[in-house]
Amino acid sequence: MSGSIPDALHFFRLSCGRWRSQRSSHHLLHRRAEAGGSWIEVVELMPGDPRLQAIATLHGQDPGALVGGCRVTWSGSMAWDKAGESHEGESVFGLIPEDDQGRSGLLLRDRGYAETAPVAGRFAMDERDGLLLTTEYETMRSLERFSFAGPDVRLRTSTVQGLSNTASFCIETRIADADDRARTPAPSAAEDAPLTALGW
């Protein structure tokens, strides 16, 4: 992308829309890689949205400190899924900056990345305008980095350390037409499986 991303809220706004995600997860304990795919939708939420206000209150934060957030929904599959198993869900994110530039602070979620309970993590933007999300859980720690390779291509890496040690890499491409989701079948893990050995 040309130009810099000034703050985390702007990064979230650039992420709004529908995305097709291809994912490769490496399970370090099993020394195996697993492929998958999903659809993701990101919708911006204003600071006064009742869902953001409720999250701030839940985490003991001042709702007035919120600058905004988003609602993320997803649906996907992974290669090791059992019959009938699905990966669908929804989460709400709220941003509370702790610096004047809005590039670092608290990230409030109604459900975590590695656990489904509500969790508060931290966000920070690095010198290359990547967005880093760090979350500490009781038994594990997750680190995610999001970056744009262009206006319609987003890259995501994540690691989970603790009881489950995994490293994942995702390429997410924007879906220009909202109707594409209905016309195009969701990527299946079986189709993606041959790509796991060397990533994408």
What is the structure about, briefly put?
The chain has helices at residues 8-15, 50-58, 180-183, 189-192; strands at 17-27, 32-45, 68-78, 87-97, 104-109, 119-125, 131-136, 140-150, 153-162, 166-175. The chain is mainly beta.
Write structural notes for this entry.
There is one protein chain. This protein is mostly beta strands and 200 residues long. The protein has a single domain, classed as Calycin beta-barrel core domain (Lipocalin), CATH 2.40.128.20. 12% of the residues lie in helices and 48% in strands. The protein contains four helices and ten strands, in the order αββαββββββββαα. It has helices at 8-15, 50-58, 180-183, 189-192; strands spanning 17-27, 32-45, 68-78, 87-97, 104-109, 119-125, 131-136, 140-150, 153-162, 166-175. A ten-stranded antiparallel β-barrel has the order 1-2-3-4-5-6-7-8-9-10. 26% of the residues are buried. Mean pLDDT is 83; it is low at 181-200.
Task: Jot down its keywords.
single chain, 200 residues, mainly beta, Lipocalin, 10-stranded antiparallel beta barrel, 4 helices, disordered C terminus
Count the strands? 10
Number of helices: 4
Q: How many separate domains? A: 1
CATH homologous superfamily annotation:
Calycin beta-barrel core domain
- Indicate the low-confidence ranges by residue numbers: 181-200
Strand content: over 45%
* Arrangement of strands in the largest sheet: 1-2-3-4-5-6-7-8-9-10
Give the N-to-C terminal Cα separation: 21 Å
Class based on secondary structure composition and strand pairing: mainly beta
